[in-house]
Every structure is written in C-alpha cells, then in structure tokens.
Amino acid sequence: MLRDRGLIEIKSRDRRGANMKLAMDADSLQPRIEHELAELRGQFPAVTACHSMLLQSQADGGKRWSLHLEFRAPQAQVIVSGPAEASAEAAVAAACRMARERLAAHELARRPLFRGPGHEA
C-alpha cells in the first residue's frame, strides 16, 4: 500500500554496499511505519511531506536495520537517520523517537501553516 504511493522504500545492502534483495516480508512493517508517520504528522501540522526508507545491512554480527526519514515543511527540511538496530521494530521505534525530538527542536508543532493571501492562520 505505502510502497505503491512512494511513501516507504525498503532496501537491503551487503557489506560492500551493493543492493541485494530483501528477504523479509516488508508488508508486515508498513502498517507500523504508516501509523508512526501519521502520528508525527498529526503532532507537527506544518509538515507537508514525509518520506521513509527502511534499510537492512549485513554486518559481522548479523543483520542490522535502520529507518531513514525525511520531513518537509515550508522553509524547513528535517532528515533523520535512525541508528542501526538488531530488529526492524527497534529501528522504527528509535528513528521515530529521534524524529519527534528533531521536529520539536525545529518548532514545527507551533509554526502556523501559510494558506495564502487572505487566509492567515
């Protein structure tokens, strides 16, 4: 569903950085990521666009996951690269926690939306 709308991308890389086919069922994570992004957009109404990419990498200790998020608002862009975690669920939680902190630091929750001339908030 999200993949069709271009809102979520799931990629996998091996140690050399080459893209490889993702073995995990990505559809199981889409509802969780979609829910988290909807909550963030509700909390920060100035956000006009949000894109995400879940990466899987292979390290000496096994598979690692990280979620990268990009938020756009008028005159602002916030990019969050979540930490690499052993599970995809932990990576989603960590990246969303970081995103909430960074968006709050940019004061996007209180920034009024520009609606055009004659439509001041």
Count the beta strands: 5
Strand content: 25-35%
Strand order of the largest sheet: 2-1-3-4-5
- Residue-averaged pLDDT: 77
Low-confidence stretches: 1-8, 12-24
Structural class: alpha+beta
Question: For the CA atoms, what is the radius of gyration?
Answer: 16 Å
Strand-and-helix sequence, N→C? HEEHEEEH
The CATH homology group name: Ribosome hibernation promotion factor-like
The portion of residues assigned to helices is 25-40%
CATH level 3 topology = Double Stranded RNA Binding Domain
Largest sheet, described in full? 5 strands, mixed
How does CATH name the architecture? 2-Layer Sandwich
Rough outline: elongated
Verbal overview:
With 121 residues, the chain is α+β, with helices and mostly antiparallel strands. The chain has a single domain (2-105), classed as Ribosome hibernation promotion factor-like (Double Stranded RNA Binding Domain, 2-Layer Sandwich), CATH 3.30.160. The protein is 30% helix and 31% strand. The protein has helices at residues 2-5, 30-43, 88-105; strands spanning 8-13, 19-20, 49-59, 62-73, 76-81. Helix 2 packs parallel to helix 3 (88-105). The longest helix is centred in the C-terminal third of the chain and has 18 residues, at 88-105. It is elongated.
What key phrases describe this protein's structure?
121 residues, alpha+beta, Double Stranded RNA Binding Domain, 3 helices, 5 strands, elongated, disordered N terminus
Blueprint (SSEs and pairs):
Layout (H helix, E strand, L loop, with lengths): L1 H4 L2 E6 L5 E2 L9 H14 L5 E11 L2 E12 L2 E6 L6 H18 L16
Parallel strand pairs: 1-3
Antiparallel strand pairs: 1-2, 3-4, 4-5
Helix pairs in contact: 2-3
